Amino acid sequence: MKKILFSFIFVTTMLSAHAQSVGQGSLSFIPRIGVDFAKLSNHEVFGSDGLDTRSYKAQFSPGFTAGASVEYMALDNLGVELGFQYARQGTDSELDEAEISLHYINVPLMANFYVIDNFAFRIGGQLGFLTGNDLGKNYTAEEADDALKKVDFSIPIGLSFEYENIILGVRYNIGLTRVFKNDYFKEKNQVFMVDLGYRIAL
Prior knowledge:
Radius of gyration: 21 Å
Strand order of the largest sheet: 1-4-5-6-7-8-9-10
Distance between the termini: 40 Å
Helix content: 10-25%
Number of helices: 2
Largest sheet: 8 strands, antiparallel, barrel
Structural class: mainly beta
């Protein structure tokens, strides 16, 4: 019974401390670093496996992400967060020449709904600015630059959990913009992201 009571007091204390540090009107700076797993929807190419021609579909490609954000607590349970984040996106494939690497600077604007203290549901909109690419040996650097759209728009949806100012976040970015300029290609970015952040009160 004493252990249960002690645990309850400890958890209540931690939640209260968090609520006081990020209450309404507070402003925080949050550096972040993490990994992402990206692929392109509708990405399918045809190639030879040595005997027959077959289709090769996209696979998730691991990448790196880093950046920072600023969160303003509009209400005790609602934060508005603006971020600036590098992410390596693109797609892997069973066919080496079909692999694509895309480098973006993403600017997400998120609404963070703190369902309970320390735990938030996050949703928003994100602009991505293409800063580099590798479309494989079938494209020259100039051809790749001409083929790709420079701006991407997506809807990020995710969750976060915070303890002692350390924030664990997971989110999925639903791409709404086609990656290629040519309307024949239907590919859109799909990105699953996991990152760690640290809240610094301003």
